[in-house]
Design a protein that fits this description.
Two copies of one chain form a homodimer. Chain A is of the alpha/beta class. Chain A has helices at residues 41-47, 71-80, 95-105, 170-177, 193-196, 218-222, 239-244, 250-259, 278-287; strands spanning 3-9, 23-28, 31-37, 55-59, 87-91, 114-118, 125-128, 132-138, 146-152, 158-159, 182-183, 189-191, 197-198, 205-209, 227-231, 264-268, 291-293, 299-301. Chain A is built from nine helices and 18 strands. The longest helix of chain A is centred in the first third of the chain and has 11 residues, at 95-105. Chain A binds chain B through residues 13-16, 20-21, 39-40, 42-43, 46, 63-66, 69-70, 72-73, 76-77, 80-81, 92, 94-95, 97-98, 101-102, 104-108, 142-143, and chain B through 13-16, 20-21, 39-40, 42-43, 46, 63-66, 69-70, 72-73, 76-77, 80-81, 92, 94-95, 97-98, 101-102, 104-107, 142-143.
Amino acid sequence: LSFIVTILGSNSATPAFNRNPTSQLLRIGQEQLLIDCGEGTQMRLLALKQRASRIRYIFISHLHGDHYLGLVGLLSSLHLNGREEDMHLFGPPGLDEILTTQFKYSNTYLCYRIHFHVVSTTPETILDAESFTVSTLPLSHRIHCMGFLFREKPGKRRINKDLLPPTLSVHHLKRLKEGKDLFDPAGNLLYRNEDLTLPPRLPRSYAFCSDTRYEERLVDYVRGVSLLYHESTFLDDQRERAAETFHSTARQAATIARLAEVDKLVLGHYSSRYRDLVPFLTEAREVFPNAVLSIEGEDIEVE
Amino acid sequence: LSFIVTILGSNSATPAFNRNPTSQLLRIGQEQLLIDCGEGTQMRLLALKQRASRIRYIFISHLHGDHYLGLVGLLSSLHLNGREEDMHLFGPPGLDEILTTQFKYSNTYLCYRIHFHVVSTTPETILDAESFTVSTLPLSHRIHCMGFLFREKPGKRRINKDLLPPTLSVHHLKRLKEGKDLFDPAGNLLYRNEDLTLPPRLPRSYAFCSDTRYEERLVDYVRGVSLLYHESTFLDDQRERAAETFHSTARQAATIARLAEVDKLVLGHYSSRYRDLVPFLTEAREVFPNAVLSIEGEDIEVE
């Protein structure tokens, strides 16, 4: 199963240096999920030849414009392109009013249904899909703002081909895949399931921590995730400015990653005051070596 | 005085083929005016190195998303960049509610003032600036929708250097520029103003006709303008589809241009069904030869 984050926008507040406001496409197997939707997200999906029509779930972290202003355009384009499938939209209170007001004045009656799920500030599981779950993460920003944790469900045990007796029937293979033990026609145990199978792959997980100041209680919520996105609006010499504006520095993002013992950290939400992003990487790696930059158009595979 | 239209977006409804939704920057001398503001307009201003901070007047023709969804992002970025100067915003009823709702949820208190001027469906003068006026044009679309006519004010008579007597004093030159006749100290007429000056340049004008079906009463309103922008969403073989959706074809846009005897026509608002735009030009020029395509990033000088 693929588990890939594609960066659609990496900048904070205002666009600059060809960097755009926040948006990410997350692909888990056949499912496409959109996380935040800054202005121009639909154009960048087009440019990357990603089909927006395949998105079934959209998650909006908060109602600062750089995280959602592309949403109405995207939803409208899906309508104009004849979408029929339901869309599930998760976001803070007020997003429904914003959408409704705009569709009212454009006299738009969508040809598909949007299920709007209000996301509260209490961390909880908000989606239980076939192969993954999504829960919210507590952030600390100037307005109602939540992160999202995407977690694969545990898979099944995998048949160990090296140990498989050559005489096994198709019926036996089917039972093995179902996790059952094997018996002979008389009902005697032939093989225990765990003797012929390997444990399931470790479930992968992705934590998206949108705008937040340094918030240590986050550590418990993202402990051990495969990939952590943590905003890094500033470099650490601007940590006072970061605190004032409820944002984080690259060093602070890396500190959360280290304390939570995550596998990998991806930085992003860069302030427009920085043209060069290399100092973000250098600063973060001093604290947490397995850090990368979010760069628009790039895929990050969750392993 | 410069009088230049810069195309920021040329496509209809949804973005396609690197074409973006409608927006144009109009520069009249030192003034910068923005006409419609589709999603991503602020990014295209940046890419063209046009300073959004110099815009003082914004005109929104109607509340279909492809004509205004970039507005909140642009206004927010101006705020974040510290704008202090007032902004004048002209648009249909409801635009104020849309903006207010979004700024409420983002908890944004702009550091500059927006004067919102509601544009009715009755053609009228809506702005009387130092060097130009703006009035509305009646269009026929599915929702409340207006065009805009930008008209230079008549200039002053211009001194004809070829006829100027070499003995004229600075005082006399000043009087000439003010349109006055010249007298000797005894009060006798020396020269009549019109004998030493040329008539003022013909005032230039630009009519922006946003989304509309073929609407012949428009002809009287745009008669003789220097430059007419008239939407051409479809080619003429789709004129039934155009009528149904309250849009026009390239042939219909050219017909309005011919009937109104304008100097030049610019086409735009192309449907995403067309990759190649040359057929629009060919079709229009069969009816009205001085037609051009709107191409994003290009300047069209009004002469």
